[in-house]
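To the structural biology subgroup,

Please find below the input and predicted structure for Cytoplasmic protein, which we are adding to the shared reference set this quarter. The sequence is reproduced verbatim from the submission form. If anyone notices a discrepancy with their own records, reply to this email rather than editing the shared folder directly, so we keep one authoritative version.
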Amino acid sequence: MTPEVLQLLVSREMPYGKYKGRLLADLPGHYLGWMAREGFPKGELGSLLALMYELDHNALRDLLAPLRGRRPLMAEKP
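Predicted structure (tokenized):
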């Protein structure tokens, strides 16, 4: 886990489903639990959802508070 990965949780939106458009860090715990039971999607999204599930399950969501509203750590090149 790196600061860049944590920053993705507070800046990346859920791309599909009931919570489409909601930040990954704002997904409800019951939804993350359901995803954990059903299986996370493959790839980066699945890894981020699994990390968010672990943070939620272990009551560590507050670790993301300082990252909210910050600009990404790595600026994208045009």
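Summary notes: The chain is about 40% helix and 0% strand. The CA atoms of residues 29 and 56 lie 6 Å apart.

Regards,
Lab coordination
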